[in-house]
Specification:
- By secondary structure, this protein is an all-alpha fold.
- It contains 13 helices and no strands.
- The longest helix is centred in the C-terminal third of the chain and has 32 residues, at about 235-265.
Length: about 300
């Protein structure tokens, strides 16, 4: 290649110093690194890397579809971990084991931060680039993510209509239905307050868990009792702040979702049939743990 700069490392430059290569080989040898995996489990074996990296199947000829696929697949992996941590935290709260619950809830908030920043990468896709792959998506949409729906249900945003997109798969429907019918994270927090002797109305301790949570003044007073005397109720006070951190991060994720969608597709309808930006903006108004926020005005 006549125009290629001389000494290109891709083709074995005359500037390459053989001694440097030998030096790095010596370091590996000195450190006794495991190099033979013919009879041992490797990194790729443990993580099933081949299966993960072979799960990207673009349908269009567009270069940018790979970004779209990887963005959503990695988000689903983070959501899998988020569900794992949420379920663990809820189980610990139900057993009055607050230390591990706090650790798990803090981890969930950090996962949400990762999901927020993931939108920065997708936002590099321009409208023409998305338009090139849009016809190949059909009606598939993140709106249909069963893991995301389980997360929303676990956080208390119950909506029976959201079971329908999963009715075609018995296994997925069972998972979403279980999350729909179970007490939410906030429900478990209120039951904990009641077990600690703080007055929580029966209407919010024994209710139909499939119904969306409704804010209640008596619940606000219960949390105020905690926040006005944090020394006496330190772990409950910390729980309130962990919930605040989590919803704060979730709100940021929703906002970043809206702005990214508007940036990439404007006000076109979403591939899943919703109004796109208009639907996402309505979701910004959903409050998961209302009394945790309103009590601040009264302190």
């Amino acid at each position: 290649m006549a125009n290629e700069p001389s000494g290109c490392p891709m083709h074995g430059s005359s500037d390459t110093q053989p001694g440097a290569a030998h030096a790095t080989e010596a370091i590996v040898a000195e450190e006794k690194a495991q190099l033979d995996f013919s009879n041992d489990m490797s990194y790729g074996d443990y993580l099933h890397i081949d299966q993960i990296l072979s799960a990207q199947h673009p349908l269009s000829p567009a270069h940018d579809e790979m970004l779209f696929i990887v963005q959503h697949q990695t988000s689903e992996l983070w959501m899998k971990l988020m569900l794992h941590e949420l379920r663990g935290a809820m189980a610990h709260i139900a057993q009055d084991q607050m230390a591990p619950a706090f650790k798990m809830l803090a981890r969930v908030s950090k996962i949400m931060e990762q999901l927020v920043h993931a939108w920065d990468v997708l936002a590099t896709m321009t409208p023409p680039e998305y338009t090139a792959i849009r016809p190949y998506l059909g009606h598939s949409s993140g709106f249909q993510s069963y893991q995301y729906r389980c997360i929303e249900f676990a956080l208390g945003n119950k909506n029976a209509a959201m079971l329908k997109p999963h009715a075609h798969s018995a296994e997925r429907l069972a998972m979403v239905q279980a999350a729909f019918e179970a007490p939410s994270l906030y429900d478990e927090a209120l039951k904990l307050l009641a077990r600690r002797g703080i007055a929580v109305p029966t209407s919010h301790l024994q209710r139909d868990w499939t119904q969306p949570y409704a804010a209640n003044e008596a619940v606000e007073q219960a949390w105020l009792q905690v926040y006005r005397n944090p020394e006496q109720h330190w772990d409950l006070y910390q729980l309130g702040e962990e919930l605040t951190d989590l919803e704060d991060a979730f709100r940021l994720w929703r906002f970043r979702h809206v702005t990214t969608v508007e940036r990439v597709i404007g006000f076109k309808r979403g591939s899943g049939g919703t109004g796109g930006v208009s639907y996402l903006r309505k979701m910004l108004d959903v409050v998961l743990f209302p009394e945790i926020w309103t009590l601040r005005t009264l302190l």
